[in-house]
Amino acid sequence: MSTPAAPTLPPLPRPRRWVVQQESVLVAAILALTLCVSLVNPDFLNTSNLLDIAVNTAYIAVAAAGMTMVIVSGNIDISVGSMLGVCATIAGELARNDVPVPLAFAAAVIAGGIMGAVNGALVAYARIPAIVVTLGMLSILRGGLILVTQGRWIESLPQAFFFSQRSTLGIPNPVWVMVIVALLVWFFMRYHRLGRAIYAVGGNAEAARLAGINPRQVHFFVFVVNGLLVGLAAVLYASKFTAIQSNAGQGFELAVISGTVVGGVSILGGTGTVLGAVLGSLLISQIGTAAVFLKVSPFWLQAVQGGLILLTVLVDVLRRRRMT
Amino acid sequence: MKRNPLNRSFVVLALSSLVIAACAAPPPAAQQPAAPAQPAAPAESQLPAGWKAGIPKNAPDRKGKKLVIRDVPKLIGIGYFAATTKGMEQAAAELGNIDFKTDAPTEAKIEKQIEFIDNFITQGVDVILFAANDPVAIAPVLKKALDQGILVIGYDADAQEDARQFFVNQATFEAIGAALIEDMVSQTGPDAEVAIVTSSLTAPNQNRWIEEMKKYAAAKYPNLKFVVTLPSEEDQQLAFKATQDIMKTYPNVKGVFGLSSVAFPGAADAVKQAGKCGQIAVVGLSTPNQMRPFVKEGCVKSVVLWNPIDLGYAAVYAARAVADGELKPGATTLKAGRLGELQVRGSEILLGPPFIFTKDNIDKFDF
Amino acid sequence: MTARTPTLSPARHVRVLRTQEGVLFIILLVIIVVLSLLSDRFLTANNLLNQTRLLTETALLALPMTLIIIGGGIDLSVGSTLAWSAVMLGFSWQLLGLPLPLAVLVCLLTGLLGGAVNGYLIAYVRVPPLIATLATLAIYRGFSFGISQARSARGFPEEFAFWGQGQIGPFPTQFVVLVVLIVAAHLLLSRTGFGRWVYAIGNNEVAARYSGIPVERVKFTLYALSGLMAGLAAFIFTSRVTTTRADAATGLELDVIAAVVLGGTSIFGGSGSVVGTMLGLAIITLLRNGLLLTGVKGDATFMVIGVVLIIAVLINDLVRKR
């Protein structure tokens, strides 16, 4: 194919200034929303409320960090909801049967990694499109989970299990995990050779290959890491409740993908940051709580949520357009 | 761009197979009524006056014969319907000569539930038991079953009356509504603000309960104020979050109703983790297994529910009795094994008053 | 474009079987043979015709979805659009008291409006399709709940059931409608300039733009069509289940997308066919139906379908690579 010589669209300038980054739009949106709602109901500004929002979002945000890597590499993972259910059940079942809690948590994370590796191998080495693999995996894991648990909730867990209900230095544990994971993944993707390779592969796999990157390895790698992070998210989820709902995680994939793409991670691959994804997840969660505080009729709740998400996205699209 | 020579042949193939199928279609298909919307015509004249429930057409004599029973609850994979299945299996084992199986979608979706029932009709089973995701939407497929001589009995969540023969009613909506309000008022007093966390805003049972609760409260406790009803979609996390938001937005709320087996523990967890056990009452419907930790800690005083094992058990006994011709229009009682004689009112079989689980008896139940 | 030989040589037969559709067709045949051996109730005209009733709504949505995905886009809002349209049908008939035919028109127009808004956002405002339709997925679902206040409309007259429960000759009404639309969609995609534009946009949007293709108009039309089909599916669905629910068709988008990708349409755009999608949908539907008839439980069936989805695409890939 010959490249047309006509007046091509100029390549997007890559602005470095903070004010024009995608993340800044999200931060602005979050601040604006906080301000508006707290004018109506000052309780919204309460520290405990803001922390509650963060805690409720943490497990979504941790999975969104993994999803960011998957999507930046040009793939997608729809099976995260089923994986969350499986990992949460594994952690709970082990802890209930007197396996030391740290081991139970580790097992859940590793199980996530293994499932991620299966996804990754099928995508990277059998070369099946990610959407097909993960759509299939969603079915397989969901069916298997119900077959095994028959819907029984997991209860009578040991006290040590409830990691997410505790705080360290006044900040709830899930928030710590969310922040640490976000920073680690952000740092890794920005500065590590392999992290940068994810952008390269997602942006242009052929060019990446010519630059000496093995795209298959990268694809495999992102799915494994994503699996590990979903396992971690499952630990945060499971240890948050007194009893674990064994068919947990239905529709979780939608929440994670929404957070990630609202956070500016391009579904075409190659662009986006994990900070955007975490902020996107926080924004969506905050919108939900804000709607209750504003006493929006529950029947219109979803429409308002969707409308605000669209508004954020539109602001971002228009902003980008003005730059070009 | 590549042209695909196969595409054209497929269109030809599809069209020709249409024609072939048109010629080969068996007469029974053609004889099916265009709109199976009218109630099955009463075959006998001895129907009680005003009988509105459905009657299977040309049902074969199944007295004492082996029955193939298929149970299609709203969904599988939750404790509640695992319990009804358990009861059904117990009854099937006691009665013998029954091939029983439960199968349903993994999510409470009416479209998928219809597909399951439709497939069981094709399979030619004797009895279909159901708990409807939607009373109206499920009616056409149930009527189709009746038209083909299949016995149709509901439990837990009813369909339109003319789409099934009998319905095993676990507890009337009025009784549940009253029990929930009384339970709440006993903890909060009659002048309190309360909120509701329901399952889905479209859930028919939940909406009827809410209606009856409000009616009962308006008559007896006019100062009980309902501030908001939020959905939780069978998701523990959503119920948890909804309850958190309720407590913060309506600081005067003294009680929260959790109206599903998932909404109730989710709500209880939110109250417990906010450290408000004892200050905010949590009342609702759920299974003992899911509520046990909260009841034992004292954060939840009592759980209102019927016994789902008994419910399933009664449904299979009803199926056998209908097949044997013992339970027919006009009957007033049903002999249901260990449950003794159950009262039959019209086309509804009554399981009895709702059951209240408390700290003292909750350990005796495993479902 | 490959030169086409007018004669049908044996070699070409082999080539035909190696196309995406050929492989799927063989997989479908294998499944049918195996299932008919396991259950004598499976391979009957009655059962198969009945299945078409159950799959019509999914199929109607899969037709435009195929075109959209070939064109490099995606529409996640189809299930919500269906619900919104259905709610509008019930609302305008029961609450506004419109005559039923007008209410059906409102239903179709609602779908068209939903699709057009998607199309406008995607084609002209240039919001990426996944994000735009993810947002409208929530918004349209929200409209369904808000407008209906979660109440369902019921009590439709008997003649209304014709479209979802009646039949034309031996065929379910909706199947006849579906076949007409399958042929139309197939011809639109494979025989018209519009179809070629869709492929061109999916292959390389920039190149398509420079070769004078009205990219925006094509995209807008595709999403608007998708909405219109959701409206039609809503009408047939309402007629089939005789009620309108705000939570109808939740998650249907995944079933639709599964059929399209199983049918060999590339999720990255540029290749795929209507015939492939219909074969994909047939495989999933018959597998679900057949396994249930043979007594396999729903949760296990769920797993089998996941495995088949992956393996079918894998086989397809291997066969075509050789």
Number of helices of chain A: 12
The geometry of chain B reads as: elongated
Task: Give the name of the CATH architecture of the largest domain in chain B.
Answer: 3-Layer(aba) Sandwich
Q: What is the CA-CA span between the terminal residues of chain B?
A: 61 Å
The level 1 CATH classification of chain A is Mainly Alpha
The CATH superfamily of the largest domain in chain B is Response regulator
| Proportion in helices of chain A | 55-70%
Q: Please report the total strand number of chain B as a whole number.
A: 14
Strand order in space, largest sheet of chain B? 2-1-3-4-5-13-12-11
Radius of gyration of chain B: 24 Å
Parts with pLDDT < 50 across at least 5 consecutive residues of chain B: 10-16, 18-44
Structure classification of chain A = mainly alpha
Biggest β-sheet of chain B: count, sense, barrel? 8 strands, mixed
Q: How much β-strand is present in the residues of chain A?
A: under 5%
What's the number of domains of chain A?
1
Report on this structure.
The complex is a heterotrimer of chains A (about 325), B (about 375) and C (about 325). Chain A is mostly helical. Chain A has twelve helices and two strands. In chain A, about 70% of the residues lie in helices and about 0% in strands. Chain A has a two-stranded antiparallel ribbon. In chain A, helix 1 packs parallel to helix 11 and helix 7 crosses helix 9. The N and C termini of chain B lie far apart (about 60 Å). The longest helix of chain B has 20 residues, at about 5-25. The model of chain B is unreliable at about 10-15 and about 20-45 (pLDDT under 50). The relative contact order of chain B is 0.13. Chain B is elongated. In chain B, the strands form three sheets. Chain B has an eight-stranded mixed sheet with strand order 2-1-3-4-5-13-12-11, sandwiched between helices. In chain B, strands 7-6-8-9 form a four-stranded parallel sheet, with helices on both faces. Chain B has a two-stranded antiparallel sheet with strand order 10-14. Chain B is an alpha/beta fold and about 375 residues long. In chain B, strand 8 (about 255-260), helix 9 and strand 9 form a beta-alpha-beta unit. Chain B folds into two domains: about 65-170 and about 310-350, Response regulator (Rossmann fold, 3-Layer(aba) Sandwich); about 175-305, Rossmann fold. With about 325 residues, chain C is mostly helical. Chain C has a domain at about 45-250. Chain C has helices spanning about 10-20, 20-40, 45-70, 80-95, 100-125, 130-150, 160-165, 175-190, 195-205, 205-210, 215-240, 250-260, 275-295, 300-320, and strands at about 165-170, 170. Chain C has a two-stranded antiparallel sheet. The longest helix of chain C has 27 residues, at about 215-240. The radius of gyration of chain C is 20 Å and the shape is globular. The relative contact order of chain C is 0.19.
